[in-house]
């Protein structure tokens, strides 16, 4: 273990070093956050985590649980849910998550929105696609996924956001364990590099925040240079920003008032969170665009599957996107998705997309649906066609009434429509454990 790292930690928590050292030997805390928009009344025998209202401790991998595939929960290190709890998102807020992949915090923000809107931005293109996949799995509608450098957002969306989360790329000390490769690569130079990048990201975030808006800055590292020192620099640079009370009882106070630190002794792997308020300044609205007309065949599909036609539409070539919120103008930005990808017009028919059947708002709305057994779910998630009598046509396949995808039924068999990238590998299987 790097002695410089240990000396620095000793300087932060001089009386708790033994506890910290023993925490490095035990497995990471694992967490499960319920998606309240899909899983409305979960009865769980799991222990609640103190960091947010829907977070629980788990002690095994649950990625192949059918409820995970259906987007009923997100797997996340428990203390990572603290930042969004502190952001205190309101149902009608316009929120920006500036460093969003893989989407733990974005999906948590979205679970608090109703009429509001979420812009989830990720700098790294591969990670942005993972973010989109998680947003789809959790069934989020009022959102867009961007893949831009934070500074590129400023020309389009300056002063547009009520709340901004900057969950900054950091040296990740809170996510390292004693034997990790990451621990061997730890260095003060890397910490300094991260601090410089964090300041650049905060400069953009400042310009994107509305007057009277709220910003939360968080990292999963212990390094003071990336936490309190970055915040002090931000306050000195922008005198109209102030630190405000995070209003929570978990964790412990950081080295400046109104900041929060979480160490493993506080029952999570490690986080730093600061809540900031912009005292004054102008506000703008996200620039909306006109809804596009859709054709009769697509309308007929919506009526047949949902019983209504979604209010706002956008068409890109033959692909159709829908939302119950105006579409936002994104010209000049790299937008991976806005709203729900409903499907594609192919010749004289409409071919639905996986995302269409994952929308949290429609979870009880899909008219044509069927429950599969665990064995059938396993076969379906491996891309197989299954023998399963059901109503003909496109059909939502469900676990206990919760859709996890769709297929096309001829009345006796369901043809598989799970996207190739989401299918299970041959040696991986659905596992249902008691939660
Ligand atoms: C701590 S992670 C975000 C985790 C995410 N908030 C979640 O809860 O799932 C930080 C993210 O910042 C991204 N990033 C890297 N360089 C960046 C930059 N220059 N500006 C903005 N984000 C950057 C990383 O790719 C990474 O996905």
From TrEMBL:
GO biological processes: RNA methylation
Domain SAM-dependent MTase RsmB/NOP-type: 1-279
SUPFAM superfamilies according to UniProt: S-adenosyl-L-methionine-dependent methyltransferases
The UniProt record lists the keyword Methyltransferase: yes
Family membership noted in the UniProt record: Belongs to the class I-like SAM-binding methyltransferase superfamily. RsmB/NOP family.
One Pfam short name: Methyltranf_PUA
The protein, known as: SAM-dependent MTase RsmB/NOP-type domain-containing protein
One Gene Ontology molecular-function label: RNA methyltransferase activity
Keywords per UniProt: Cytoplasm, Methyltransferase, RNA-binding, S-adenosyl-L-methionine, Transferase
Signal peptide: none
Keyword DNA repair: no
Chain sites annotated for binding S-adenosyl-L-methionine: 99-105, 122, 149, 167
Active site: 220
């Amino acid at each position: 273990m790097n002695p410089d790292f240990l000396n620095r930690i000793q300087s932060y928590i001089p009386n708790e070093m033994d506890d910290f050292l023993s925490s490095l030997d035990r497995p990471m805390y694992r967490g499960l956050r319920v998606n309240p928009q899909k899983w409305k009344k979960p009865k769980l025998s799991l222990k609640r985590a103190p960091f947010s209202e829907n977070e629980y401790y788990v002690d095994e991998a649950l990625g192949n649980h059918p409820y995970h595939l259906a987007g009923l929960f997100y797997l996340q290190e428990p203390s990572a849910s603290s930042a969004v709890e502190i952001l205190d998102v309101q149902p009608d807020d316009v929120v920006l998550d500036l460093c969003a992949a893989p989407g733990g915090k974005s999906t948590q923000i979205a679970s608090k929105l109703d009429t509001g809107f979420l812009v989830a931005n990720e700098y790294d293109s591969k990670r942005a696609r993972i973010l989109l996949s998680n947003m789809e799995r959790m069934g989020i509608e009022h959102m867009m996924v961007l893949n831009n450098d934070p500074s590129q957002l400023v020309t389009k969306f300056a002063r547009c956001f009520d709340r901004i989360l900057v969950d900054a790329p950091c040296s990740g000390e809170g996510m390292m364990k004693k034997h990790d490769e990451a621990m061997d690569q730890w260095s003060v130079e890397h910490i300094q590099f991260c601090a410089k990048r964090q300041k650049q990201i905060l400069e953009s975030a400042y310009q994107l925040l509305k007057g009277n808006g709220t910003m939360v800055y968080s990292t999963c590292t212990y390094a003071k240079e990336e936490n309190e020192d970055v915040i002090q620099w931000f306050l000195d640079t922008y005198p109209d920003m102030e630190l405000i009370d995070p209003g929570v009882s978990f964790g412990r106070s950081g080295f400046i008032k109104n900041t929060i630190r979480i160490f493993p002794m506080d029952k999570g792997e490690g986080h730093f969170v600061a809540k900031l308020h912009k005292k004054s300044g102008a506000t703008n609205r996200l620039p909306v665009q006109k809804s596009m007309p859709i054709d009769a065949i697509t309308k007929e599909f919506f009526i047949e599957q949902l019983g209504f036609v979604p209010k706002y539409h956008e068409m890109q070539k033959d692909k159709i996107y829908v939302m119950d919120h105006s579409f936002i103008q994104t010209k000049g930005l790299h937008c991976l998705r806005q709203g729900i990808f409903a499907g594609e017009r192919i010749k004289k028919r409409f071919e639905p997309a996986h995302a269409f059947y994952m929308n949290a708002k429609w979870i009880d709305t899909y008219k044509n649906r069927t429950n599969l057994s665990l064995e059938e779910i396993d076969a379906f998630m491996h891309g197989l066609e299954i023998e399963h009598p059901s109503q003909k046509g496109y059909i939502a396949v469900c676990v206990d009434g919760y859709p996890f995808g769709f297929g096309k039924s001829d009345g006796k068999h369901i043809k598989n429509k799970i996207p190739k990238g989401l299918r299970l590998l041959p040696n991986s299987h659905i596992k249902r454990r008691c939660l």
